[in-house]
Amino acid sequence: MSPENIQHLAAIVDGAAMNRTEIDQIAATQPDLTMEVAYHIQAASVKRRLERGERLIGMKMGLTSRAKMEQMGVHEPIFGRLTSTMLLSNGATVEHSTLIHPRIEPEVAFLLERDLTGPVTPAEALQAVGGVCAALEVIDSRYRDFKFTLPDVVADNTSAVLFVLGDVVKPPHAVNLGNLGIVMEINGTPVEIGSSAAILDHPARSLAALATMMARRGESLKAGQIVLAGGATAAVAIKPGDHIRALVDELGVAELRMI
Ligand code: 0L1
Ligand code: MG
Predict the structure, then answer these.
(1) What CATH code is carried by the domain that includes residue 9?
(2) Do 92 and 257 meet the contact criterion of CB atoms below 8 Å apart?
(3) Atom 5 of ligand 1, nearest CA residue
(4) Which pTM does this prediction carry?
């Protein structure tokens, strides 16, 4: 695909993300939308956000659990980019009308205290981590009816829109990171129950996979960045009035409210 077309498609997904409008799948009209091209479109669309003053604050892994892969009909993890306007304070209130068709999923997040350049093993990846915490990620695909191919969702920055982090931060070796029980409640009712083991079998494997995938593109993670390791359950549609809490063993609660 030509550089001009990549920039043109980046402007379309960026515009849809900014204006919270639905678009048609890119793959439907662009047969040369490979995964490599899709990551170029993602990078170019996020660059537009940075040029408007947002800061790159981290990265996210997507489609890391079998439940998510089955839900979306795909079979490999992908990564996206987190910017400063996506991070809300724990317990924040979000207006549903400012989103398209939001869904939410409980996650575990890493706070990096060292740079991390792949390829790395999970054990090496953990050496860059200063802390882990509970997280909730709101995803809001810009594609009509939340339907897309894998390259489409990569181009759309893996549906990233908002996230919150829990207040409890612990060193990764201080918790049973590979098997933390996770419950997501909506209005006091458990709607999803899982374990951090569902995140590519161990969240450290997700972090290592991220660093390794980024290295293939000549990119790396930096000290101070946040990494959302990926959903541990299926994502759930949310509506006005919902109070959503992710309760993660040993890591407390990440929560937000929809109005
Ligand atoms: O964070 C995620 O796992 C989302 C990846 C993109 C797929 C989706 O929008 O469900
Ligand atoms: Mg996610």
Answers:
(1) 3.90.850.10
(2) yes
(3) 62
(4) 0.96
